[in-house]
Amino acid sequence: MITHSPDMTRAIRARFAHVESCPFQGPRIFFENAGGALTLKSVVDTSATFAAIPDNQGRDNPASAALVETIRKSKAEMAVFFNAPEGQFFVGESGTELLFRLIRTAVMGSASGGKVLGSTVEHPASRSAAQHWAELAGKPYVSVPHDDETGQVTPGAYAERVTPDVRVATILHTSPVTGIANDVAGIVREIRAVAPDAYIIVDGIQHASHGRIDIASYEIDGYVVSPYKVFSRHGYGVAWTSDRLSGLSLEALKDGPLGNWEMGTRDTGAYATFSDVVKYFDWLGGEVSGETAPRARIEAAGHAIHAHEKELTDAMLHGTGNLPGLADLPGITILGGVDNPDREGLVCFALADIPAAEIVERLNAQGIRTHVRKADHYSGNVLTPLGLDAAVRVSLCHYNTLEEVRSLLAAMKKMVG
């Protein structure tokens, strides 16, 4: 396990930029990973390399051929990382933009009539897109309620709302507010049992940095991630689409190639920097296991990441040494419950006597970076039913350490007196 290997921890942290200090604030502990994870140093170097190249794809010269090969290679590596031997990958403006595009294509291209199905736990990237295009298509939007106590939506909840006329369904893989993962494969099974031809789109943006993505096992039509939340950089999103979804009418240049989602010249550097992410997972899997095949190493990395992050969130919740855990603090609410087995590297909480914004401010003054989630259009769907106007989100990744958790707990112990 990463936690119990100081050398492994140092090797991991050495691959990321600004691990221990902010270029604007100075020394700090980074517990704001759900807002954007740390960036691999290789991504920084790759971005600079490709930003300097003036050539475009599709020309008859060596530089252009190299760019085309870089994109081809990256897409092949994406297929291994996501375990998606079929379908296609492409990049866009952002994860949110790509979810809107995929959902728009599915809603407007599916058979007339019918319904669009989603859940109350979803981020507005998918929920707003589904509601918007359902209204324009004249297809009623059906909302599956999530469990306020666990912070997740279950296959059973979908089963109660799905009907044979569902044309499109959306699923959130992991909540960026509660940090609780949903059973994608189980939800899909319930949908397909009643509406086998529905187009199913998954928001994997929060889930991606924690590993263990397995598209081949989901029987879905679309999966989207935001690379800046999985160790790459801002400025692009990555989408996978099934051949079935790509066979619908797509917005494209007249007389251009069929099934082409890409519009205009792609940023080769975006593809190249996602290759850096895949290489990192492959390297980590080789360090924590004896696996040799790339996919097996990526799976091993995901399992190691999950185990390490669970150890950290358990310590955060239940305490370590003589430091009490967050769950022991008076008047505290832990979103998703204290002992939720589906938690992924995130603890979101509120105290009865100290406003969330004040907690975040006081922690930041001590060099501990967290984030306040307000009951707004981003998080109100989760916070308002709990009677909360705001909460503190502490989000971590596998490069975080037990020592950093101890610093957070010590600061919170002192704060509550």
TrEMBL record:
Q: Which GO terms describe its molecular function?
A: transaminase activity
Q: Which residues form the Aminotransferase class V domain?
A: 29-408
Top-rank taxon: Bacteria
UniProt-listed Pfam families: Aminotran_5 (PF00266)
What are the protein's UniProt keywords?
Aminotransferase, Pyridoxal phosphate, Transferase
- Write the signal peptide boundaries: none
**How is this protein named in the record?**
Aminotransferase class V-fold PLP-dependent enzyme
User: Whose protein is this, by species?
Assistant: Sulfitobacter sediminis
